Amino acid sequence: MNARSNRRDRRWRPRIVCLAWMACVLPGCALIHHDSTPYAEIAPEQINLANDIHLARDGWPAARWWTRYQDAQLDTLIDQALVDAPTMVIARTRVAQAKSDVELVRTGSSLQVVALAMLDREHVSAHGFLGPFAMNEPAQGLTGPWYTEGIVGLGASLNVDIWGKQRAQIAASLGVSNARIAETSAVELEISTDVAQLYYGIQTTYRLIGLLNESHEIAAFAVQAHEARAARGLESRTLLEEARAQQVAIERQLASAQAQVRQLRESMRALVGAGPEGLRAIEPVALPVSQAALPATLSYELLARRPDLQAMRWYVEASFDRIDAAKAAFYPSFDIKAFFGFDALHLGDLFTHASQQINLIPGLYLPIFDGGRLNANLSGAREGSNLLIEQYNQAVLNAVRDVAQTGSRLQALDEETELQKRRIESIAFTRDSVEAHYRRGLTSRLAALEARQPVIAEQVALLTLNGQSISQEIALTKALGGGYRADPPVGLTPR
After folding, report:
1. d(C-alpha 433, C-alpha 240), whole Å
2. How many domains does the chain have?
3. Mind listing the UniProt keywords for this protein, alphabetically (predicted)?
4. CATH code at position 292
5. Is residue 127 part of a domain?
6. Which domain holds residue 380?
7. Which has the minimum average pLDDT: 42-56, 222-236, 359-373?
8. CB count, 10 Å around CB of 48?
9. DSSP character for 53?
10. Residue 302 lies in a domain
11. What percent of the chain has pLDDT over 90?
12. Tens digit of pLDDT for each residue in 413-461?
């Protein structure tokens, strides 16, 4: 019994020593000395509009929102831009890169197996740990001091993610990948609204050129009429020069408008990513009637409708996972390494049964003293997360501001447009009256034509308002997220 008891004691002694060692060492591992309080998410009541901001229509933009204008040219330009625009290519490349990063991080928790083959020609020192092998004693199996060692086999390693550090790193990478996908939708929205803005900028300028040409014809007739009267001595040359000055002013406006069309077209070509001949001619079309709509409430719905906010939200979520990974780094890590193959000091003995080698190496790594590196890493992760939370909160406030300002501007433009239409009606009455006098022979043709100029000037002012309304309507579509729709967001839960 004593012999058996001694054997049992010897068998348990290493385990007891190991447990005692762990009991002594574990309390001495690196500790989290301080972790700052996470910042709070923006309050729901701040994601709303003032009560005095409203439009005639209610609702959110639809997918492919630009098709509501029923303009085939615009549809073609936006579709082309969403495929060929360099910024779209960059966004898609960033998504592919983020997916590769996820796969790279994910492989860290998988079993790794490699094939090994090594040849080592070495000279053994007679004064080192392998000193006896430096002798040349073939009878004893010593053929030193030169040896050609060969190793062939398979090596494997596996990190055991006990505390979830690897899982947190994978989750953080997935969060970045999801953010990049949302950013791609944000780029699509940016490109589509920019194309629409440029397109209707061109169409508005086309309409302006038409009004200016009409005004130029009247000015040209006025110059001819005053020139004929001045030549007969019926009036002073002053009126002629005033008419010429007005004609030159209109010609200058025409030149400026035509230059603006060329500039807008070049901006469109660069945005679409077309070559010198890759952009079709843009034909004039009538400006659409405003169809702007504003939802009655925003709240968390705005967060789901704005791809840029969704991207920032994913970055914040990824920062929480980085904090989890930083905390897990304070705990012990465990891995297993293994090798199976052949190892021999002589190549002739390499593939013999006696040269077989098997290694199984479980490893436990416990941080004890790290000079504050782990705490600094956790602090950096926490502060980086807090910074992202505040940037997200500010982005939400900016989004609400954009919707409010654009909606308010559209509301004001609607009122201005109605007033301008009434003004044109009043001025048009004077024009119609003068033209009626001309038809009865009571006034000259010049007077009838010149009576049209104030109406044309007011029509230019109305055109400017219409162009601004379309521009603001597109801006509101962008502020509301276009046709983007993500899952309803849940509250951020800092860790």
Report:
1. 25
2. 1
3. Coiled coil, Lipoprotein, Membrane, Palmitate, Signal, Transmembrane, Transmembrane beta strand
4. 1.20.1600.10
5. no
6. 39-120+151-479
7. 42-56
8. 14
9. -
10. yes
11. 51
12. 999 999 999 999 999 998 999 889 888 888 888 888 888 999 999 999 9
